[in-house]
Amino acid sequence: MTRSVLEHRPLVAGIERRLFLRQALSLGALTLLTGCDISDNDEVQAVLKLMSRWNDHAQAFLFRRDALAPTFAERDVVRDFRYNAYFPVADVPKLAASDYRLQLSGLIENKRPWSVDELYALPEESQITRHVCVEGWSMIGKWGGARLGDFLKRVGADLTAKYVGYQSADGYYGSIDMATALHPQTIMAFKFADEILPAKFGYPFKIRIPTKLGFKNPKWVTTIYVTNHMPGGFWEDRGYNWFSGS
What we know:
By secondary structure, this protein is an alpha+beta fold. It has two domains: 56 residues, no CATH class; 165 residues, Alpha-Beta Complex (Sulfite Oxidase, Chain A, domain 2), CATH 3.90.420. Strands 2, 3, 6, 7 and 8 form a five-stranded antiparallel beta sheet that branches. Strands 1-9-4-5 form a four-stranded mixed beta sheet. Strand 4 and strand 5 form a beta hairpin. The relative contact order is 0.18.
């Protein structure tokens, strides 16, 4: 049985309060620079959203599909990798291979669902890269799986579309730009440290994106779709930058 985001409102609210405190620091700097009255919340929020969109555009402009995130040696891999989510590890979704089907929608030609066995039969490669969390910590892990870009080509996705969105079994949702989806290091990670991905890390797979911050790397993915309409994301809709390159 899976637990939805809404069932963890207190934990989510706590994270949102920490986000608000960080935004408050930004507001102070903004007040000094512009003379804004921070009591005028609507205007301040409008300016912050404009700044966030500018950051997104700037990061997207600087992003290069041929620029790789740093890779590391086997000796650098953290075996006791940190579990991180907005709920306790005991509440992670328990997805059964016999029941699981990856749903495809949007600008994709072949929308038939994919089973775990079919996904795990895809050509696989591994990477040793650093996971960078927005909370200020990072760890190096070894991940194995199929390139997301190759999968999108296989199912006939419109590669000229702007966005690739995803939904997860716990109610989480988000999206990335197509250039990032096609990046050679963006993979559908089926393994961690050469073992089948454990439930706490996203079984049957997570989307591993070493060029993005950790919250852009969704676990327990159940749906992938392609669209030209900005899908947003769970944390992005609460104030995080959408592009969020690492």
